[in-house]
Amino acid sequence: MTGSIVDSTGAPAPVADFLHEVLAATPIATRLELCIQCGTCGGSCPSAADMDHTPRTIFAMVRAGLRDQVLHSNTPWMCVACQTCTVRCPQEIRIPDVMSTLKALADEARLAPSTTAPAFSRTFVGNIHRFGRSYEVGLVALHYLRHYPLRLPAMMPAGVSMLTSGRMGFGVHRIRQMHQLTAILDRAAALETGR
Amino acid sequence: MTSLLYYPGCSMSGSGRAYAASLTAVCTELGLDLEEIDDWNCCGAFEYFALSQVRAYALVSRNLALAEKQGDGSRTVVAPCSACYLNLAKTDHDLRENPGLRALVDDALAAGGLQYQPGSVEVRHLFEVLVREVGIEEIGRHVTHPLAGLRVAPYLGCLVTRPDYDHRWPLREHPLEFDRLLSSLGAEVVDFPLRTACCGGHMTQISPDTGFDLIRRLLDAAVRAEADMLVTVCPMCQMNVDVYQAELNHHFKTDYRMPILFFTQLMGLAFGESPASLEIGHEVVSARHALGKIGVVVPEEAETEGAPGHVPPRRPKKPTGLPMPSMPGPQEVRR
Question: What pTM did the predictor assign?
Fold first, then answer.
């Protein structure tokens, strides 16, 4: 991949390997390599206050090759993917997609900061693998019991209200062609490993 | 009768069932025939893309392939959930733009005996279909019971106009179509600058402090604008603002009681449908008091004694001071 990034004169610019790793791990062109460090993303971000580095800083760290620090940061997990930065970025970088890649790399490297986010994703995806659909009640109940048992009392009235108004669908719907979906996802997993 | 392929999304049979009921009533009235995509699967929300993007694209592509196969007569796929809409639109767009991704997805779909030609379906959000395809004027012509006197905050949320892969929205941050649609129903639309702000999505699950603060901003803006309710086009936004409001009040020691209804519920009311048929009364923070203002009676049995929304909402005191982002202000009653 060396040479895919050029400086203003068109000559290959030296880049840290981690940037290449991030670009290669993303199946679409995110244009991350074109970041001009203007900071519009962080200034637009509704959850920037809760991030330990703003998106701009994270992209600088990616370029500097600070792999462990980036993957250990909570920044990608705090991204709410509201796409505000995407439409404001002068370089049209697909920032939430970069954050998805960083999450996947952090999870794989077991560097994700102590957060319940990867666990939530896994529970959610587990339901898809079982049923082909999301199962709200099981998902939220399991997640609360595992990670937020102390939040349950404050949530009880809302839970009761949803229960009695029929907003909790207890019947899990399983798609008919589950074997087809499984075959597709298994093949995709094999292809992803081979990339 | 215009025929459209319909991708309901998982929440429509659970937390968003009032959306499902009301959009069916509204589409019937407007002559839109929704044909559900047979055996559709989950769009993966955020969660699948966070773990594995290639598998997530393959997951979404199965829906597009099923739609392409089923869609004789229509190639428009309409999704009422903003997150589902984004994932379907994003996948179709990215398959068109990234040959490498397309090769991987083609290979994965083939393992399930499916194929998809990128661009062969057109993914649209229900809101966009209603304001563009049917048209706000036409919707106005169906109004028999104008919502005069109801003050509504038009909360469109993030993903309908952003990132807008197909360039359908000239104003991505302050689109006015939702304001105009609600005005055409006779409602009084308040000035709500957070119309495309974020509800936090899954943050209520994984980082409650972050999620609650984003929801609090919405509630605060609605209270400041003296809105009777928020109106949404997304089941995720509805759930965050409605279901988590009690826990948020507990967290911030506030006393918000701001109902949030689906725009299709208000359209249905304006078209003369009964509140019960639109499943009004199933929200946690009750809209009864707000709708009572305009003479709409929500049936009593639809509500639960003791639910947090059961207490009639109080009109908050007028805010004082500059309209700046702030900590919980004087309009919030401290316990």
Answer: 0.89
